Amino acid sequence: MIRTELKRGTAELAILSVLEQQPLHGYEISRRIEHDSGGALRFTLAALYPLLYRMENRGWLRGEWETGDNGRRRRCYKLLPRGRKMLAPLRAEWSDLFRAMRRVARVNHA
Amino acid sequence: MPDWLAYVNGRLGRLSLPEVESAQVREELAAHLEDTYLSLRAQGVSESDAVRLACDQVPSWLELRRDILSAKLEAFMQNRVSQIWIPGLVTLFSAYVLLALMQFAGLRVMISHPGEPRGIVLYLPWMLSLPLIGAIGAYLSRRAQATGWRVYFAASLPALALGVFFLLLFPLAFLIDPQVSLSIKATALAAAIVNWVILPGFALCLGVALQSLRKVREAHS
């Protein structure tokens, strides 16, 4: 349970953070997270979309269909004010967790 | 390049979602697979490996379908409460508190055939207040992004609740008082349904229509 919640929490913060910079469609979200985390975080299709739909239902994001220059339709996700408001407490929560883990596990910054 | 939409349709199976929503989910998943495939091809990965790696994105389609439905149904349940039950209970509570207050205040009722079971009792002031209550219900339901039948259901809940009540009561009436003839009971039931279900339901739906009209006017102004 903790493992699932932890994973979901990480994923939510990662998605909100990349969407804070600009609206992106699903594939771009997964690529951006992978790139920004140096390949440490990877989202497969199976992990990404249920989470995106859940976050959209909570009013954190909104997906809108857009047609690109190549004529392909993609659903672009945009961060909504409610999602933006979630970012600060989520970041604080994660920061506290990392600090606590550093103390407990005696992990030092690289 | 593979037909990714056909691939998703074949693997995902039936999603218990509205058709448009289900089609959008399929299209979005297919687009993701297509982007993955194209990106791999652009990196020089062979056709067969690119297809395989794209397909590896979903270890279990059954699990993915379950997860998507769970995420979508979570919203459905939340929406049902805010779009139907909260506005519905507001209309139900307002309609019957108002009726009780009117009865307490001693407002006269209209009776078409006094003293007879088929007489229709009309609480005219109450009936006149129902369009306003229906409009409030419709406003609350639409504010929660409801459309179509959900708005009408929420707004007409006071009438629907009484309809269910009468239908449940009807069989009991035969058991309780077997001396009274069937035709009298049936007439009384029909009168009660007209008076407490159909007419109030119509008045409440009139409120929904008026609220829609107001919304359309606001949109045009």
Give a quick precis of the structure:
The complex is a heterodimer of chains A (110) and B (221). Chain A is an alpha+beta fold.
Give a verbal description of the structure.
The complex is a heterodimer of chains A (110) and B (221). Chain A has 110 residues and is α+β, with helices and mostly antiparallel strands. Chain A has a single domain (2-105), classed as Winged helix-like DNA-binding domain superfamily/Winged helix DNA-binding domain (Arc Repressor Mutant, subunit A), CATH 1.10.10. Helices cover 63% and strands 15% of the residues of chain A. Chain A has a 3-stranded antiparallel β-sheet. Chain A is globular and about 55 Å long. The mean pLDDT of chain A is 86. Chain B has 221 residues and is mainly α. Chain B is elongated. Chain B has helices spanning 4-12, 19-42, 47-55, 61-104, 124-143, 149-155, 157-176, 182-220; strands at 110-111, 121-122. In chain B, strands 1-2 form a two-stranded antiparallel sheet. Chain B folds into 2 domains: 4-58, no CATH class; 79-220, no CATH class. Chain B contains 8 helices and 2 strands.
Features:
heterodimer; A: 110 residues; alpha+beta; Arc Repressor Mutant, subunit A; B: 221 residues; mainly alpha; 2 domains; two-stranded antiparallel sheet; 8 helices; 78% helix
